[in-house]
Amino acid sequence: MTDGILLSIVDGLARVTFDRPASLNAMDFPMARRWRDVAHRVTSDSSVGAVILDANGPAFCAGGDVVAMSTTGASGRDVTDTAAAIHDGIRTFAEAPLPMVAAVQGAVAGGGLGLMLTADYVVASDTARFVSRYANIGLTPDLGVSTLLPAAIGQRRALQLLLQDRMLDAAEARDWGLVAEVVASADLAARVEAIARFWLDGATAAFGQATRLVRVGAGRTFADNLADEAATIGAAFDTPAARARVAAFATASAKGRA
Hints:
The structure is a single chain. The chain is of the alpha/beta class. It contains eleven helices and nine strands. It has helices at residues 29-43, 66-71, 76-95, 111-116, 145-153, 155-163, 170-176, 188-201, 204-217, 222-237, 240-257, and strands spanning 5-10, 13-18, 50-55, 100-104, 107-109, 121-125, 129-131, 167-169, 181-183. The strands form two sheets. Strands 1-2-3-4-6-9 form a six-stranded mixed beta sheet, with helices on both faces. Strands 5-7-8 form a three-stranded mixed beta sheet. Strand 1 (5-10) and strand 2 (13-18) form a beta hairpin. The longest helix is centred in the N-terminal third of the chain and has 20 residues, at 76-95.
């Protein structure tokens, strides 16, 4: 049983795939638990150096499965428990020293925005569309949207999405800073794979620590961030991989000055 999310780990690359296409990859409670468990599985595997987050079907993610909540007699407590499980997974991925790239196609709605922004780098197909729609059904932001969305695009633009029935197309999302790149649908998978391979073929650990420093920094004091930066770069400098790269850089610089 996949409970709506597929996971593969091959040669240091973890691929996490939303797999409820008939429901636009909206998260019900089993999928929420699966997301949480996958996050812990991936971030605890020392062989993993990069993560791809993608989705099967016409949409990336429609957020929480409101239809299932409505038709199964779910209570507010059930909704809170579902959100809490998803939040656990989001926090686990976001705080891990592990870069993640998301491949986004079709609709991204509601909490799908937060799940997408769990990734450090987002590539969207030219058919992607982005919308909030929380208030349309009398609900409030979850899945990290109230924090991750303004961090990505600024508070005022985040409020435009949350307080108006506004949809962004892929080009607007790139202009706003919601996604990093827009590519043709046919090129989406290959582009995301290339980004992940760039991380794996390079200074993998340094990329991972860079994502961690940026992610956790927003919730700490400046002094704590500076202390973490100092300790992290010192630890990186002592690794064989970094020493080799620093030596190569120094040699190239010396030749350039000669």
